[in-house]
Amino acid sequence: MKNKTSDSFVLRENCPQRRIHYVLNGKWTSMVLYSLSFGVMRTGQLERALPGISKKMLTQTLREVENFGLVRRDVFNVVPPKVEYSLTPLGEIFIEPLKTLYDWAAKNADALDKLELNMQKSQD
């Protein structure tokens, strides 16, 4: 069995593994997409699903993922205004590996606790 060396491993500037980070560059991006994987949501529902997110950050994140083509924004011509967000077909594809990661996190909370503890120790 041949061992790979670090010399043969290169993440080139335009490779898929690096390009994914152009989308997942913010703290809230994956959480907004994951929340929308459960169905259509309005802004207030997303705010309740993501405690700690400010209205400004939610709006900014939604605009960003909408511009990427991952989220669709539907505006209804009613009073008061009604806006709903949902994943596009591209968003449905994009969320698949994120669901796997979130499922892993739910099953491995103890590993994340250890990681957080190690991070705190390294900052002291």
Task: Tell me what the structure shows.
The radius of gyration is 18 Å and the shape is globular. Strand 2 (71-76) and strand 3 form a beta hairpin. The protein is mostly helical. The protein contains six helices and three strands; from the N terminus they run H-H-E-H-H-E-E-H-H. The mean pLDDT is 91.
Give a short summary of the structure.
With 124 residues, this protein is mainly α. It contains six helices and three strands, in the order ααβααββαα.
Strand order of the largest sheet: 1-3-2
pLDDT averaged residue by residue:
91
Helix content: 55-70%
How many beta strands in the DSSP annotation?
Answer: 3
Shape: globular
Pick out its properties:
124 residues, single chain, mainly alpha, globular
SSE arrangement:
Layout: H1 16-23, H2 29-36, E1 41-42, H3 43-49, H4 55-67, E2 71-76, E3 82-87, H5 89-107, H6 109-123
